[in-house]
Structure formats: C-alpha cells, structure tokens
Predict the 3D structure of the following.
Amino acid sequence: MNQMAAIDSNADNKPETTTNDTTAQAVKDTLLAPRFYKTNYAEMDRLDVNPVREEWDKMLAEYAADNNHDHFRGEVDYDAEMHDLSPELREEFVDFLVSSITAEYSGCVLYNEIKKNVDNKDVQDLMAYMARDESRHAGFINRALKHLGVAVDLGFLKREKDYTYFKPKYIYYATYLSEKIGYARYITIFRHLEKHPEKRFHPIFRWFQEWCNDEFRHGESLALIMRANPHLLRGYNKLWIRFFLLAVYSTMYVRDHTRPQLYHALGMDPTEFDFRVFEITTEISRQVFPLTLDTDSPRFRAGLERLREINVEIQALRQRGGLVSRVKRLGLSAAAGLTFVRLYLHPTRSNEIPAEPRLAPVW
C-alpha cells in the first residue's frame, strides 16, 4: 500500500494544496465523507455460506484467477493525456479522488481487519481477496493524486481516521450498496466517455471499467452472504435495508451536486447522472433486496432536491460564521432530518428475490 508520496517535482501547474492538506481532507469526518468501520468479528466468524456453496466456490475461483492482476500496475502517461485543468476543476477533481481513495482504503482496512480476526476460512479467503482489490484501487488513485502534486498518507489515514462501529448486518447492507453503486457510477462515466472521448480530461477514466468490475464482484460476494442467511432480508431488517438505500442515495445526490465543475467538464448533468446511477443500482439490488426505492416519483426527487438546497444553505452559513449563523444551521439541520424522514416514509416497491443469486456486469 502506498505511503505518503512526495510531491512530483515534474508535475506542471501544481495546486496550492499540499500533501498534508490532502491527508487532512481524507481524515476529516463530515456527513458526506466516506467512513472507516469496525464490527463484531466473533459474529462474522460464525457466518455460514453452505446454503450457497456452489456459487460461493465459483466466485472464489474467479477471485483466485485474478483477471485484473496487471491492470493497475501499468504506467500511465499523465502528461500526454491530461487536459489543462482550471483551478476550480482541479479542486473538485482532487476532492473526487480524495473521496474515492478514502472509500477504497476504508474497504481495504475493514476487510483486512475481518480477515485477521476470524478463523472461518470462507470469510478469511473472501476478505483477503477483496482487501487485495481495494488496496490496488487506493494505490492507483494515489498515483494520480501524486501527479497532481498531492497524495494521501494512507498509513496516517488508517491511524487517525475515526472508526464507526457497525453490526455485521449493517456492514452487509451498507457495503453491498457501496460496492454496487460504485460500479454503477464508474460504468456510467466510462460509457459516457466512450461516446465523448474529447471529455476525458484525465487518463484515470480509462481504467474505470476494470475497476468497477472489481466493485461489482465484491457486491456479488455480499449478496451471496445475505442469500445464505435469508433472515437478514426479512421482518424488521427490511426497515434497515430501506434506511441504508435512502442514506446511500441521498448522500450521493447531495455530494455530487457540490462538484458542478467536475460534471460540466465531463459533459454530464449531475442530476441526470445520479438518477441513471440510481436506476442501475436499483435494478442490480433486486438480486437480493426485498424492496426498492421509487426513485422515479416526483415527490421522492423533490425530497432529494430539498436536501441539496439545505446543504447549500448550511455551507453558506458555515462560511459566514457567527452565532446567528450557527443557530440558523441548527434549524436547517432539523429541516434536513425531517426531509429525510419524509423520504424514508415514502412508499417503496416490493421485490420478489429471484432464484439465481449471481449477476454479470453487463451495463
């Protein structure tokens, strides 16, 4: 795993942001930032995947074949392929990469910790493979950040980032969604840039297809765990599934709209992009979840937009500072909470889980 990378003395047009600034950005905990997790390892050690043994063994064989073994090791000619970036675009692109590396490294750390703290060979093998993939992704992003004149000290990030405790079932729901929505995001951008190569302002976008296929397989693994333990998909657990679906979708919607220059440079509208990603993720999640969110509903979309507007207002007040601004922010935070509750209570769509548990990345 890459450690703190020195600033590349050959990189042109370096931003004022320093490596320490970038690491601090990754360490900082905000409502929209990716988090680091710990869980109940003894409970994970008791995990039984025998009900899906045939599919499980096939999946582990795919991991062992490691078709992306050399993909993230190739040299990238950044100078030949990268466009000139405006200061505003550079700032948003760095923010995008830092968020991405934090999410990837979060998975790497979590999977490694699970592997070290269980004796269950099925769980150990899976976590070792997924940690391997996330490590490659994080290292690859750090190389891109280094070329931009910044990098994240991953060792420091692991030590200093706050950890959130999640029960294993929360890990399954949240990580499954994170991996699958990651696939949907990357493949949507990749397909768009296939049609509009002139908008590919950085070479890292060329790696998105293989990258997101790793994410897809990780999601498949977690889907098998849930399919092997169907109690996770019944009763009051449906309420947790509903919560995590909404939390992931709403966080993505608000966060993406804080990067207007990034999506303008890509030639994409962030709202259209997000709902395309939701469409793909919803279609995929039918393989395992007993319900889906009605993201086509005008009321649902209006609720997400209201969350975005509240976030804009809160950020403006934070910049202004002062006691009055702080009081107003508290009121807006309460309004955001109420909006989230209304979205949570919005009718969902029932889904009959199919007999076949595996999917292919065909989007």
Remarks:
- The chain is about 65% helix and 5% strand.
- The longest strand covers residues 36-38.
- Residues 295-352 form one domain.
